[in-house]
Specification:
Blueprint lengths: L18 H11 L8 H13 L10 H6 L15 H10 L13 H14 L3 E2 L7 E2 L1 H7 L2 E5 L5 E5 L2 H14 L15 H14 L8 E2 L3 H6 L5 H15 L5 H12 L9 H17 L4 E4 L4 E4 L4 H11 L8 H9 L4 H4 L7 H14 L2 H12 L15 H16 L4 E4 L2 E2 L5 E3 L8 E5 L2 E7 L4 H22 L4 E7 L4 H14 L3 E5 H10 L7
Parallel strand pairs: 12-13, 13-14
Antiparallel strand pairs: 1-2, 3-4, 5-7, 6-7, 8-11, 9-10, 11-12
């Protein structure tokens, strides 16, 4: 066995997008309590393939059709048949090998779920029952997934708040030197970041903006939990270079000073861009971190100051573990106090003010470009802020921005949860519309989705009809809905026509590109 060494922080190479974990756990939850062996591990991976969450390369035409327009890492449009799953497994042999599991699909199971195990969501080992923790249960319950009579996969995010709660719980405790990864670095990354941010913000020299993206590699390479020493090193860096050290300066500090020349080879692009991007995503999913200064600064989300103080009080010191099972039990032990503390509620007027601020910071040209990124389902935004917002949340934010940018007289009230800068942290909660707009005596409910195909029809139209009816009763009978998606499925259009005829409700569907064109040519959001 290789001796542990110091390494830069890279949480996982197999599931870098934390949003994927909740879907995978939804599948695994069906096997909670069953004894794990290689056959069951293979069956579970087959189930992730059946739902389109794991997609090996070689596919039949029928399988390609069922995954068409469904992005990688998300549920497919239709459930694969058992014979199609068998085809995928037979025609895509896995050469992967993990300790304790047979080579192939059993080892692939371990690769897919190891990170969830390390974070305390689910424990598994061959020969023992699969065991979900309470936080793992939360994460597996984010989605409500149903299969219709024609095998369409219907997915509704019924508890988006559970994802943030689960990751906050995990990141408060997640140690670099844990028994699963066996590195020598000894700190809890979230705690180290919060401690340094507190020190930086208390220092009058630095204007209370937090730390810069350029400084994040120091956190990523830092060996100890000495927040004071890291704070002092950042201050020294700023005294010498202000906020703009060169990439070479940062790499030299990481390689020759922090690592003391022990790490000879690493990709500079990874150190400067890829590792910090992943670090921001993992830290921001906790809800405790905000982005400031056009994405240049990472700071405390002051809407969560009470929760931040609780975390620092209770998790700044931590036990060490040699046993994987003991470490998992520590990670899994629930702390309900974390969730009992409520963040500062953002009022309607504050939500509107936030939106006006962001319209000044993100111009129409950028809004249009980023909406087109979502329309193409490419998910490859290079914007220094927007790329950290998951696509469904980003579409809500950009749609609200687009309306306010082009039609400033319209009152626009988004219902997504947001941090202290107004950036969304999750989609609008279940049971309410996405964006509420008011124009003279008229109301316009704006509903958005990244879903396409039959999923869109099953998941969206009836809830939209219900939300619109509630919106009319609450505000004004002169109300209608604008429905925005990357594309509008033909069955969705038929359902919308049915709603118009039977319920006398007006739902106006727009592909994203058509909605952009509409805003560029109209003087009003409401259409008679």
């Amino acid at each position: 066995m290789a001796k542990p060494i110091y390494k830069p922080l890279l949480f996982t190479t197999t599931m870098r997008n934390p949003q994927r974990i909740k879907a995978m756990l939804w599948v695994l939850k069906k096997f909670d309590g069953q004894i794990l062996d290689d056959a069951l591990a293979t069956k579970i991976v087959g189930e992730t393939i059946q739902y389109g969450l794991y997609r090996p390369m070689k596919k039949s035409d029928s399988i390609k059709a069922k995954w068409l327009n469904a992005p990688m890492g998300e549920f497919g449009n239709e459930l694969l048949t058992d014979s199609e799953v068998d085809y995928m497994i037979v025609n895509n042999p896995q050469e992967h090998k993990e300790a304790g599991f047979e080579r192939g699909y059993p080892s692939r199971f371990a690769t897919i779920f190891d990170f969830a195990k390390e974070l305390g969501f689910v424990y598994f080992t061959p020969g023992e029952p699969i065991h979900f923790s309470s936080t793992g249960d939360k994460l597996a319950s984010v989605y409500d997934v149903n299969i219709t009579d024609d095998n369409t996969i219907s997915v509704e995010e019924v508890h988006p708040e559970y994802e943030q709660q689960a990751f906050l719980h995990a990141m408060c405790k997640s140690q670099r030197a844990n028994p699963f990864v066996k590195v020598l670095n000894d700190n809890v990354p979230l705690i180290l970041l919060l401690q340094v941010l507190k020190k930086i913000n208390a220092d009058p020299r630095w204007n209370g903006k937090g730390v810069t993206r350029k400084e994040l590699p120091l956190f990523i390479f830092w060996k100890s939990n000495d927040a004071e020493a890291l704070y002092q090193r950042i201050c020294k860096l700023r005294e010498e270079y202000r906020y703009n050290p060169s990439d070479e300066v940062i790499i030299d500090i990481c390689r020759n000073e922090i690592m003391e020349g022990q790490m000879k080879k690493f990709d500079p692009a990874s150190v400067i861009t890829e590792y910090p991007d992943e670090y921001i995503r993992k830290m921001r999913i906790t809800g405790l971190i905000s982005l400031r200064g056009a994405g240049r600064f990472i700071d405390l989300n002051h809407n969560e100051d009470e929760r931040i103080d609780y975390v620092l009080k209770h998790y700044s010191t931590y036990p060490r573990f040699d046993s994987e099972r003991d470490y998992f039990n520590y990670m899994a032990e629930p702390d309900e106090n974390l969730f009992a503390i409520e963040a500062i509620h953002v009022s309607t007027s504050q939500s509107e003010d936030y939106l006006k601020k962001w319209v000044k910071e993100i111009n129409w040209s950028t809004i249009k470009k980023e909406l087109q990124v979502l329309a193409k389902r490419s998910r490859t935004s290079d914007h220094q802020i927007l790329k950290f917002i998951p696509a469904p949340v980003r579409l809500e934010f950009l749609s609200a921005l687009a309306i306010k940018s082009r039609l400033p007289e319209v009152r626009v009230i988004p219902n997504y949860a947001c941090d202290d800068t107004g950036l969304p942290t999750s989609t609008a909660g279940g049971g309410i519309g996405d964006i509420e707009c008011f124009e003279n005596a008229n109301g316009i409910l704006v509903e958005v989705t990244m879903a396409e195909g039959r999923q869109q029809t099953v998941m969206e139209i009836w809830p939209i009809s219900r939300h619109l009816n509630e919106f009319k009763e609450k505000y004004t009978p002169n109300s209608q809905c604008v429905f925005i998606a990357p594309s509008i499925f033909s069955d969705s259009q038929d359902q919308i026509s049915f709603v118009k005829e039977k319920k006398e409700q007006t739902i106006r569907p727009y592909p994203i590109t058509d909605f952009i064109e509409y805003l560029e040519t109209t003087a009003t959001l409401y259409s008679a």
